[in-house]
Protein: ABC-2 type transport system ATP-binding protein
Amino acid sequence: MTTSAIAVSGLRKAFGDKTVLDGIDLDVPAGTVFSLLGPNGAGKTTTVNILTTLMKADGGTARVAGHDVATDAKAVRAAIGVTGQFAAVDELLTGQENLQLMVDLSQVPVGRGVVTDLLEQFELVESARKPVSTYSGGMKRKLDLAMTLVGNPRIIFLDEPTTGLDPRSRRTMWAIVRDLVADGVTIFLTTQYLDEADQLADQIAVLNQGRLVAQGTPDELKRQIPGTHVRLRFSTVAELDAAARVLTDSTRDDEHWPCGFLEMVGRSRCGPCWTGSMSTRSMPTSSPFTHRTLMTFSSP
Ligand SMILES: Nc1ncnc2c1ncn2[C@@H]1O[C@H](COP(=O)(O)OP(=O)(O)OP(=O)(O)O)[C@@H](O)[C@H]1O
Ligand SMILES: [Mg+2]
Structure:
């Protein structure tokens, strides 16, 4: 039997006459990654704040690590780690001192050498003795997450952990999340990036106008996308010709040469004969699922 790390039923929250959460139900099995996806103002941070006891809900129930967030906040806090949307680090202290502060404040025993280990894991050794005010935004995000891991929480909330990070730092963050999950940790992750949810999550829920408008595995949600738009860009005419022969329902565009395009609307039919990298960006459209994908392929 799988146990729920997070179980939410009928969660409601309004600010004045603005309803932000209009009856949210979700269930996160222990040891999995759950991604709450939604545009600016959808209510992602509000959800995180309620589940981490930073804010009270107006209605519904939420249990985290088996404890009710409304009536047993202390037990919830002892079980979780939170990396908020904006880095909560002390700018006047060094990275090392920030981490040591978390060790000193920790309610649970922390192993010796944890500060050194975390500085290494997050590639912050070189700047460990510099004030955080001199860190870049990405370094502060990494330090913030490292501070969350002190005390080895079994449920971790990450509110947009990679917003503003460069591609390399995003990948570092993703690798860290995967390592945590491999270790049995449950991750509740909010993001605006479909590709991030796709990369990391076992389950995705899409929050839009106060409601979860879709929930499922990444594959289940992708199958629901009616209008996926895939653009393939090739560096040589030969590759474009070869791809056009395979992808017969695509539209060929030679006009933008030297970057020849194939446009495909509908489900991607890219087979294993092509390899490449894919990046996906959410588009601000009426449908929360619509997205534009740019694939850069190279022939095997
Ligand atoms: N303390 C507050 N008082 C009044 N309104 C608030 C408060 N906190 C959030 N809101 C409103 O609730 C809505 C949801 O905000 P929230 O921060 O949860 O969105 P979000 O999905 O995290 O957005 P983003 O991607 O921009 O971080 C917004 O319209 C916001 O203005
Ligand atoms: Mg937010």
User: Anything to note?
Assistant: The chain has two domains: 4-223, 226-298. The first strand starts at residue 4 and ends at 15. Confidence is low (pLDDT under 50) at residues 264-300.
